[in-house]
Amino acid sequence: MAAWEVLPQVEWGVKPGRNLSMTRKELNLAIFEGSADSVLWQPRLETWIGHHETYDTMPARFQGMSPLEVYDALHCSVRYAASAGIERYQVRDDLVHIHEQHPDHSVDIVRTPVGEIRTVSQEIWEEGRLVNSRIVEFPVRRVEDLRVVANLVDRQEFRANLDAFERAAQAVGHRAEPTIFLSSAGFTELIKNWCGLPGTFYLLCDHPAEVEAYLEACDRRDDRLIDEAVKLPCRIFNLGDHAISEFTPPPILRKYMLPRWQRIAARLHAAGRFVHTHWDGNARLLLPYLQETHLDGVEALTPAPMCDMTLEEIKAVVGDRMVVLDLLRAIDFLPNYPVKKLLEFARRVIDMFAPRLVLGISDELSQVGEIEKVEAVTELVDKVCSLAD
Fold it and tell me: What structural domains and CATH numbers belong to the chain?
């Protein structure tokens, strides 16, 4: 008896029975168009696959398979395998890049006509392989450093490559509608890459005009990127914003995030495209603003107890308008979590959010996640919603 068969029957908001004419690609797009009557199972497995390939611990039944073949074996859709077609480059005529490698850390120096910045990263190496790297000295320590970063952002350029997009889309084929990653928000990039969390808020308090000048450079960068993105026939785009309550509390979100989302949504909607954002942590305080973003969906919201929001709180704000991507907690795929509880939770998610749901794992299946639980969810989706071909 399969694991899902021991669960109580409930009333589903989707039609039972397989639609043999609908592929995973078609269902992916139909969910965003609002014409779907089923659920797409689209967990992100690249971290798990990469880990087991690197350490030669891939389960026997997947050995020798390409990543797409692993997805096929699990009857899953794939989200970002066709994220190709936008070439990213930098105007570098008067830049100097210096990399210093040390046993347990590295130093990267960038010299520009307006100044120099220096980043120190702590590193963990195993048998000549870099397995972890974290910034321990952020490059922006003074307001003068931020001017250098704004200059670097202004140098970022983009070029659409139709051939690269079509090759990637053809490789993915029926498995998914291509989704292309665009960019993260300038504000969260300041936290993640340039200044760190405390440094960002001190800098904003002491030098708001300079921070806003940097954010304006990021807005110009976004416009250049979208100019090229809409030259491709891609219909779905993602913004890797990492908006969470700690990074973008409501006052920050209202002032610096909402206008950007609204502007990008307007541009992409005018071109007949869809766009979703990535919120992958404690986001309960931000939920009331989701509809104001004007975006089509939100990726990686992570329910309690892993993060701080309930399914009911999420449903109350997305309603039936926004697409929700993921929602199954990554911790539920760890060995100590019972599969029965995972499947009970998955059925609740489907019942509450289908058909405006791309079911996945918030944020991804970890290196130590159990692939058998992915297979169990596959069986569940096939039973109650039917799997697209």
Answer: 3-90+155-384 (3.20.20.210), 92-139 (no CATH)
